[in-house]
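Rotation project, supervised by the postdoc (A.L.). Task for the rotation student: set up a whole-complex structure prediction and record inputs and outputs verbatim in this book. Inputs entered:
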Amino acid sequence: MITQASIQIIDNANMVHELDTLFKPKSIAIIGASSKELSIGNVVIKNLIHYNYTGKIYPINLKESEIRGIKAYPTIFDVPEDIDLAHVIIPSKFVPQIIEDCGKKGIKSVIINSAGFSEMGEEGIALQEAFLAKAKEYGVRIFGPNCQGIINANPEYNAYCDFTFTFPKPGSISIVALSGGVGAFIMQSLFDLDIGMRMYASNGNACDISISEVLKYYGEDEGTKAIILYTEGFRNPREFIEAAKLVAKKKPILAMKSGRTEEGAQAAASHTGSLAGVDIATELIFEKTGILSFNNEEDMCQAAMAFSTQPIPKGNRVGIITNTGGPAVIATDELVSVGLQLPPLSQKAINILKETQLPEATIGNPIDVVATGGGIHFRSALDVLMNEENIDSIFINFVTAPFTDTDEVARNIVEVNRLKRKPIICNFMTNLSIDRFQTTAKILKDGGVPCYSFPTTAAKALGALYKFQKVQTRNIGEPKKFTDIDSSLSLPKGNGTFLPSSDVFKILSAYGILVADWRIAKNTDEAILYANEIGFPVVIKAEASSLVHKSDLGGVAINIKNAGEVKLAVDRMKLKFKNEELKFLVQKFLPGGKELIVGVTAQKELEPLIMFGLGGIYVEVLKDVIFKLSPVTELEAEEMLSSIKASKLLDGVRGQSGVNKKSIIEIIQRISQLVNDFPQIKEMDLNPIMAFEDKTIVVDARIKI
Amino acid sequence: MITQASIQIIDNANMVHELDTLFKPKSIAIIGASSKELSIGNVVIKNLIHYNYTGKIYPINLKESEIRGIKAYPTIFDVPEDIDLAHVIIPSKFVPQIIEDCGKKGIKSVIINSAGFSEMGEEGIALQEAFLAKAKEYGVRIFGPNCQGIINANPEYNAYCDFTFTFPKPGSISIVALSGGVGAFIMQSLFDLDIGMRMYASNGNACDISISEVLKYYGEDEGTKAIILYTEGFRNPREFIEAAKLVAKKKPILAMKSGRTEEGAQAAASHTGSLAGVDIATELIFEKTGILSFNNEEDMCQAAMAFSTQPIPKGNRVGIITNTGGPAVIATDELVSVGLQLPPLSQKAINILKETQLPEATIGNPIDVVATGGGIHFRSALDVLMNEENIDSIFINFVTAPFTDTDEVARNIVEVNRLKRKPIICNFMTNLSIDRFQTTAKILKDGGVPCYSFPTTAAKALGALYKFQKVQTRNIGEPKKFTDIDSSLSLPKGNGTFLPSSDVFKILSAYGILVADWRIAKNTDEAILYANEIGFPVVIKAEASSLVHKSDLGGVAINIKNAGEVKLAVDRMKLKFKNEELKFLVQKFLPGGKELIVGVTAQKELEPLIMFGLGGIYVEVLKDVIFKLSPVTELEAEEMLSSIKASKLLDGVRGQSGVNKKSIIEIIQRISQLVNDFPQIKEMDLNPIMAFEDKTIVVDARIKI
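Outputs recorded:
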């Protein structure tokens, strides 16, 4: 019976995607094909042949009649059939004309390997714009320029449209990388680890087809099980967020962004040209969209090995089986560090193990089957852990002790691994130059057991599987839309200035945020009047558009207790600032709360970042702050409170009372709504906000528009 | 001319060391030799033969006349010649007798592979003590029991006294590991990286010959260039510190201590038995003695590769040469993260590079010679960096672009590397399954260039070389001996109690530490009298031996401004505590300083730890504290101040004044002297000490003896 679901799958499989001519070309023209060995125009053809490309190759060369044994044509117009994809490997100045030709010929996708465009200054930018205009006119999609190309390792295509030198076997990991150099060594690393690859894309200047578009394409590709992504920044971060949100929960995206130090970012700028948009926000984008972020490319590749064969664990509870002590200690350290737990075994499990293990074995978690333990001992431990309800994943340390039948151990691991019920990760310690152990390794490898050479590396890989489980189950929810906002509020256009305090407080009040009671006084008498209205003690702050860091300049007087002190403070400020427009902000003084900060930083091409942390002088001293990309949901705001280092302070310590966390969480969300409503806000600091047991009140704030 | 120095070296080389019979045995008896394949008593003989052991092998077996083709003897007494070393592979209960036999035969070193001793409870402990007594009586040194053994890869010996399966080629790295499993995979990892090994030792229960003793032996071995050490704790940390101090500045010691999480420590306890002594102090021991600490065993092995061939850089300034963009960005990030700097190139260097590099090259630091750059381009960049005064080391990213003569590039790198003037680390990105690139790799390998597969891994290795340079040049100096101490001070024996405040303050004063002026009052009148003497405002604290956490219990009244308030406070405390022996500590109230903490924790078998950090409630909330192992020198005390996260606070921020750091540094040193003078001090907290611009004063303190 054909069900609705199966129809959909069939439809999906037959659906033609715009990028199919790029990733699944039935025919490829190489414009700039060359008979010169080691030239890119020759290497690309050589690679297609070497990789057994299943489609047709059309070398385009004005003079040669054949290249590498394949008939060549003077121009694409001389090719008698349709062409899906063209490689362009000619000097940059000829590219606009060639793109027009491709359009006329009906070629849908073009990989421009040639350099000499936006990465080379004005002249190059003009050329890039010229060929892009032609591409738009004719509906040609451009991959590159200044790029490597793509690879599709699916045997149906074997499309090696690239000049690199690694020939991966087919698999389920797809790679997209901004840098060809990094993409290539990631591909090589998978190859060295004997992990198959699905697709590869390295798009250089990325003037048309973006990383985001490739990411979505991989997301829709049924053969792609996990994705590796490398970038140094995003030209269009919003587009990326959209794409990542679609894909990241369905398939693990393992990503690395370099240029995380100032020096690294400089090095990045020097080779990719200016990448507009985000820098520090990239990690926040990864977090928000559920991308697994790595800052070590080797860890990323090693984790990919686990994703390529293992199921995702249901939780963070791991059982360890080991036949050697020290490596289990190292593994335990790392497993715990990445958030996994080692629950004790059930009495039932202990009873079974006591009957089945050697007398020297240690029954517990880890289970030490000892070096003399054989296949049956590993098997009973594996079976026990597979049946333990409290265990979500299995970590194995397997050293090939010379006095055991290691093949038998491997066969038992493989049999249990085939069930695919819980992920199994194996730290396999052996000497592969010994034939006997090569056999053991092959049994594990063929049985789909991911094998690592170090306990820490293996533990990190299991940590990555668990992290993806958290990504899949984490639901940040939708940002709350507060409806008690004063909708009459309007803000002037951004002009790079700070708003007067009175405006700032009005804006906060309009958004339902508590502000310490305040008035603006023009003179001493008004200041005394207002102080009485507000109730002592008060704070007095000098107000003039030129004053920003008031407290550093002596423009703030705190804890004013009576009219006499008001007069003194006002007189002193008058004397100090001698400013015609000087006014005086009289505000309720609120000592004894915990000083916190909520801040906002606008981002080019991206939503503003919201910051929360310890306020007052501790902002600078401790930098104990957390950023999130807005809009911030309630769950995210809660996470901000619990992730600062001083989060204990909010709960109250040593007799001190805690704060009203709910009110802080609400302020963060209201600020998030405010800055999303008014994109002209460039910068905002509520510092400090005073958090009390019952409520939280803003006592100082500034807004730059 | 034979100088004094050269005589010493000759003497040293000929000197006979007690452990020579263990590491350089001329003859080995295998007591428990077996003809059974895969048994340890057979594998050890097989390994000795396979590794071409240069000495004589004497299998000892009551029944067999030969084992693996070698004449066997019923007992060691039947062996006609002297024996240097014996392997003991017999049931534990026979071991005491065999050790006595060994003693009688004049065997100086014994490796006990057999298990069944201290790791197996009381009976085992008794057996271990029994054979140890015999060993002492006859002057036999014991390695093990429950251990693997040793390996000496020096071709003069080829002594493979171990049952493992990795056969390293000779080299300059020596390994000592508590866990045989970890030792074995470290050895295997060096083998996989094609790094030679010098010596190997894994001593299991370590009942006699300790890791410390082996470490000293490696330190004196001229062929050992660097040492890898793995442990899960120390039985005798003082002995280890002595050994490490002797060796760590001469030769890099790369070390890893596992069991750093609670769960990991538990796992360690379950397989090594209880290791008395330190746990959290291990990192501090490593720091104090100059050991390079790793928490990732792969990083440690990769770093060893750099140490095995490269000189130590003179400083932290690195020049990068790359022929691909992205990997240079990744490398830059990591290099900067581990403390290296990328200085700009001199004008002279830039001029040379402009003349010698391709037009597409990026001239700067990194120098991007681009993928089409060949041998001459790499060479000119290398020569320039070798001659730059501001560059201490060279990092190379070398991808084997198919369109360049990669052998020529490799040859140029090797020629410059042979100079050994500055360390060269190479991230070599290639496909070793391609013959052409295998040749390139061999050129680099034979030329002693350490090659890595990932930029981050390579950068970490260079970071380790730099770290050793810091170790070699760091001189913490000797602990200062303050002579203005009141030498009449005495302390009772430790009894697990807290000293009364009056005693605590007297002790601090005796050690020249400023304490806020104080008196002990018996009643209200005395309290008022003393408050007047001290000067208001004061603090009043309830004093009785039963009161420890006074402030939590309402036993502290601060900011008392006059006699009336004194009376009120005293009356309230009387009512609250209803304690016959209740007294009242009247002390100067000192608001406005920065609250800091200095603390002490005693360690079993080791000097106490000194702690410094943010005081008051921030101790618990932020845990912004630094520990050092006492005695703490002036430099170390300075490091403590500069390494807390809030160190900026001490310098003063946003108009706030800084503190008198010198006075804090002195307090730390005086406390260090105090606890070294009085080992009965179990615990001490000066919390808070109030730091002002001019001085630092202790306002509260407790001491447990």
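Student's summary: Chain A touches chain B through 95 residues (CB under 8 Å).
Supervisor addendum: The longest helix of chain A spans residues 455-473.
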